[in-house]
Amino acid sequence: MSSLSRELVFLILQFLEEEKFKESVHRLEKESGFFFNTKYFDEKVLAGEWDEVEKYLSGFTKVDDNRYSMKIFFEIRKQKYLEALDRQDKAKAVEILVQDLRVFSTFNEDLYKEITQLLTLQNFRENDQLSKYGDTKTARTVMLSEVKKLIEANPLFRDKLTFPALRSSRLRTLINQSLNWQHQLCKNPRPNPDIKTLFTDHTCAVPNGPLAPSSVNQPVTTLTKPAAFPPLGAHGPFPPGGAVAAANAGALASWMAAASGASAVQAAVVTPAPMPLPMNQVAILKRPRTPPATPSIVDYQNPDHELMKRLRPAPSVEEVTYPAPRQQALWSPEDLPLKVALALHQGSTVTSMEFHPMQNTLLLVGSATGEITLWELAVREKLVTRPFKVWDMTNCTNQFQALIAKETPISVTRVAWSPDGNFIGVAYSKHLVHLYAFSGPNDLRQHAEIDAHMGAVNDLAFAIQQTVWDLQGRKHFTFEGHETPVYSICPHHKENIQFIFSTAIDGKIKAWLYDNMGSRVDYDAPGKWCTTMLYSADGSRLFSCGTSKDGDFFLFDTSKNHFLAVGEDGQIKFWDMDNINVLTSTDAEGGLPEGNLLAVSTAENGFKILANTAGFRSLRAMEASAFETMRNPVDSSLTKAVPGASVSCKIERGSPVRPSPMLNGVDPSKPRIIDDSTDKPRPWQLAEIMDPAQCRKATLPDTAGSSTKVVRLLYTNSGAGIVALGLNGIQRLWKWVRSEQNPSGKATTAVVPQQWQPNSGLLMANDVSGVNLEESNPCIALSKNDSYVMSAAGGKVSLFNMMTFKVMTTFMQPPPASTFLAFHPQDNNIIAIGMEDSTIHIYNVRVDEVKSKLKGHQKRITGLAFSTALNILVSSGADAQICFWSIDTWEKRKSVAIQMPAGKAANGDTRVQFHVDQIRILAVHETQLAIFDASKMECIRQWIPQDSLSAPISSAVYACNSQLIYTTFRDGNIGVFDADTLRLRCRISPSAYLPQGNQGLSPLVVAAHPQEPNQFAVGLNDGSVKVIEPTEAEGKWGMVPPSEAIKTSPSTTNNQTQEQLQR
């Protein structure tokens, strides 16, 4: 339904309300689904009219629409069920249970069983969770409050809870204006016409006798609510012809939008554009369906019309007509970015890149794993990384939720900066677009998540003024017309006209105005295949670069309105815009350049930065100050002065070129004599945290005063809790709650969490009867939804309910004892269980059956990790071996021994964890950290304890973004390593987080927060748990040393042994 039709419904609702047609009002609200009347809903709920409550809700949502809707209906039906029980009407309660509540058993069978058990109680208040249930009136009020919160959070009710702000009797006013208009069109208007019907258009009857003098009337601009339609003769004279049409185009079009012969002006006014259109644009935007009747109405479909001349791109290179030669400065080879300045490792295949439009050393990178990374090229460091994650699953379509449930891989297809550099857009290979707000290198915040398309989002771009999706995720326009998937888009504006080019994989190119009225230009691209379109930075030229079915081309952005670059078969070719002959080319294995710096993706999961002479100067100048400026949010006034000459990526577009800035008082675009003293970067130093004031920390409270050492530690997947498993087999749970001090409800050092304990007083205690605890190997695993935790401590494996701490089931009675647990990533009913006898059992919980038994290790299993990308299970054992198993057949593919330092025996616990790319593996042994490439099943990097970190390693884990590795040592030290290079970024001394005078106190295990890459927790040998974060001023744990420092610094962590291994 069009926006005007929707607004008409609101006008009718207002009219019905004013006329006291109460039942009709609410029926139209429900049937249209446009406005949810909370006042009416409240009345029906508090009156207990449950059938009417559900009937009214059904106009806006169904039970299975999303999680919020399901909870709304559940709360209402539960209340109805409890009221029946309270009345001791068991028959009605059973009827509600069977007919209304059974639908929820599919989603939570345990809850349904618990509700059913209430029938057996004399008073359901005997149930702990219902002990505070009061009288019916109070219970309804409490339930209504909860339901209204769910309604407000439900995306299906978005924009439906507030009635538009309308003047009273708006429909009457519009009809009155229409009658005025009809009267003005009369050939013989009478002074005081008697209008008796709205069913036909008004005309004044021709008077008898001589013609009466023409008394024309001034149109009404403001009307108060009339008791009846006022006589039209009360209005004064009004001007003739064209002035009338111009003055009242809006009102006329509003009521004639559906007419078959709409004029150009009408069609333009009906356009639901968020901004008013100037009259000179109105004439351009129309699509007339009748021949022009006046000289002022021009047919835009005429190929000679000026708009078509403006929008029509050249169909091929041969047909391009260049303007008269412009005065161009002579160029030299130094202007082209041909030399490699940097080579950086992303860790996964780079799919899209783009430089910040104002800060030319900030590069945004998207990868095939779905993660985005912000690089500061001046210091060769990843500032921020965000792995792919659905922010709010309830706002997503059922189709997308089904894809996620199947663990469908999702990659980044396009990253883009907004023209002002304040927002980042990320398009994904399935459905979603993410918008991040960017206010500084350390401040990248989630802004909006849009389930934009069915299937892949192939491209995105920020437009100026007009929007298809606004920054709050609201859709304003839908452009339909392509018959095959859209390949790329190119928004632009010219002479105050906003438009969009789009290309599809069938080679069709279309141009659209922001009006939902179809494409204005349709033609075939050269080669009739995938094409990308791009305007030069000054907007004077439009380029089209496409592929044929036999080859790939990538379109590059332009530099200084002078050069054009295209990637083809690993070559970057440069053209002068005023000459069709190739200037030069360079080999960078594909990529797209612009400005002084050029980012080029490589085949080794990384990218290279190419630079011209000015680019090298810019990098050196920025490098000198980057260590300080990176730590602080970007000042807006400074941002406006930072360069915008660099934009790049695979099939990328850039922002208009801005004036070249002054870097450290020097214009980098001009040659200068380089002073080594000013360009030399400051010496890099290892960050060492020695004092408690240098970091933030929180000790988790323990009401029981446990002193049993913590041997396993996990964050909940939501990031709002921590689970610790002690050597005695008892698990403790801490939860953070939402508050003014902690609005996110996530784990933080700023607020002390609560130790969770159910009313029953139960402990999550494993069966340890007959177990020698000192020789046991406790293990733990958490379900994806945080509902269940599975653990063992030398005895049977127990499955606990995280809310009630009840044991749901037990299995795998020893011997042999279970030593490691891992849920299958695609099926929570399948568990891989490492055993003390060196075997691995693939166990199906639902049927209580071991499906496969894997043999390949010589000693007990100490680590398990699944990779859905490679379809393998990786295991590690106390024999210092790593085995790779096929998930499909459960056959062993390969076994690799960890390379032990000289004089060390090949034994001891070894843990494994996959990088977020699901390809690299972190292997942790007391003697080393090692990175393996699981696709090649070989070690690629290794670090051995040395210097200030020479004690044996007790535990290590990837940060949530896999950019850091947190490592604990038995002497109490903690090391923070760069995950790609295994170079030490930061050392945290025991004196910074442990109380003074506690000799022998050390961390045994470390866990990383699932969403905050700079937060981790450690479990100590005295039973305590501490959460640690960097100070707010720092925001992160140290920095990666620049390449010059890496070559000379004694703190480098790539030791000689591993350098030989890599060679």
From TrEMBL:
Protein name per UniProt: CTLH domain-containing protein
WD repeats: 854-895
Domain of life: Eukaryota
Organism: Brassica carinata
Start and end residues of each CTLH domain: 34-92
Ranges of biased composition (kind: Polar residues): 1046-1063
Keyword list, A-Z: Repeat, Repressor, WD repeat
Record region (Disordered): 653-680, 1036-1063
Keyword Repeat among UniProt keywords: yes
Gene3D superfamilies: YVTN repeat-like/Quinoprotein amine dehydrogenase
Residue ranges with Basic and acidic residues bias: 669-680
